[in-house]
Specification:
There is one protein chain. The chain is mainly α.
Length: about 130
């Protein structure tokens, strides 16, 4: 991971914890980690995997992106999620957090990977 993202990640982890007055120990227990393991993430000595980030996002009721982008960019990103759809083309539906994450990650894929994923989804939903 880029050094800039590591700095943002550790700063956001600390900010969310401190904003809620949670101790290192409390967050570590929630994540089922030792206090020192969690502290290593928050100090930038180790990078949390996607599963740890997901648990943190659930704890703080934010999206994973909140840990990866500077607050101003993240707030802009949140606004994008609230854009209205063209109602003639897309039904008015509410997306849960997992659906939003799928769309976000799908957009990051190459065209070939998107095709493979769509074929897999077609197969899974037809059986």
């Amino acid at each position: 991971m880029d050094k800039q993202y590591n700095v943002i990640l550790k700063e956001q982890m600390r900010k969310f914890r401190e904003d809620r007055n949670y101790s290192h120990q409390y967050v570590a227990q929630y994540l089922q980690l030792t206090r020192s393991a969690y502290t290593n993430y928050e100090n930038g000595f180790r990078l949390p995997d996607i599963f740890i980030l997901d648990k943190l996002a659930r704890l703080y009721n934010v999206s994973i992106e909140a840990f990866l982008y500077p607050p101003t960019l993240y707030n802009s990103f949140k606004e994008l999620h609230n854009l209205s759809y063209d109602h003639d083309r897309v039904p008015d539906i509410q997306l849960d957090e997992n659906e939003k994450r799928l769309i976000y990650f799908f957009r990051q894929l190459s065209d070939r990977d998107k095709d493979e994923l769509l074929h897999l989804a077609d197969y899974k939903t037809s059986h």
